[in-house]
Design goal:
- The protein is about 35% helix and about 20% strand.
- The protein has about 220 residues and is α/β, with parallel strands linked by helices.
- The protein has a single domain, classed as Rossmann fold, CATH 3.40.50.1820.
- The chain has a seven-stranded mixed β-sheet, with helices on both faces.
- α1 crosses α6 and α2 packs across α3.
- The longest helix has 20 residues.
């Protein structure tokens, strides 16, 4: 079995009863969203263990083959053409191993939130909706639904009960808003309840989004 991904961890109480596994975007690392934890805590988000894994490094085709942290390769600016099926599924397995570790640490799967930004959000959707035991929630930021051709057959029907928070910037030049909207529509058509937010921003996170995430976390693990 492959070793677990290295992670940055931050607990907002000594013995947490909930966990948030948060996946970074392409070229970033696990430190990227660590500062958000204090903001969420200040906004009243419930206590939790936050786990920020570092994706493995790999050459990324769309970036000229430069080696960087990535959850999978991107070979086309269209994002959904010639998808890296093997890489996406490998990352899914790595994230499933982190979910299993939280369960081994005593956190019920119904108290585990899977979150991600951009590529990380795509892997959060890929992984979270295929779990036979539903998670507490999925937070998918500035992303899209990967491997849509196999989604209907592979998703676990029980995942329709998992609360979904999706958000996107209206002027996102990296993952166009239309990709996020298409993911939302596909999920709703499959019976998922999606809490959708869009903000006047590019490929990023803003203050109102963090406020909305804090409110969402209160509802799902409060």
């Amino acid at each position: 079995m492959n070793a677990l991904l290295e992670c940055v961890e931050l607990q907002t109480r000594t013995q947490p009863t909930a966990s948030v596994i948060w996946l970074h975007g392409l070229g970033a690392d696990g430190h990227d969203f660590v500062p958000v934890v204090r903001e969420l805590e200040a906004l009243g988000a419930p206590p939790a263990r936050y786990v920020f894994p570092h994706a493995a490094t790999m050459p990324v085709t769309i970036n000229g083959g430069a080696v960087m942290r990535a959850w999978y390769d991107i070979v086309n600016v269209d994002l959904m053409r010639r998808e890296d099926d093997k890489g996406i599924r490998a990352s899914q397995r790595q994230v499933e191993a982190l979910i299993a570790r939280e369960a081994e640490r005593g956190i019920a799967r119904s108290r585990i939130v899977l979150a991600g930004f951009s590529q990380g959000g795509a892997i959060a959707l890929q992984t979270g909706l295929r779990q036979p035991e539903p998670l507490a929630a999925i937070i998918a930021l500035s992303c899209y639904l990967p491997l849509t051709a196999t989604f209907a057959d592979e998703r676990d029907p029980s995942s329709a009960t998992v609360p979904l928070f999706m958000a996107h910037g209206t002027s996102d030049p990296i993952v166009p808003l239309a990709r996020g909207v298409a993911a939302r529509d596909a999920l709703q058509a499959a019976g998922h309840s999606v809490e959708w937010h869009q903000y006047p921003m590019p490929h990023s996170v803003n203050e109102q989004e963090i406020r909305d995430i804090a409110a969402f976390l209160k509802r799902v693990i409060g």
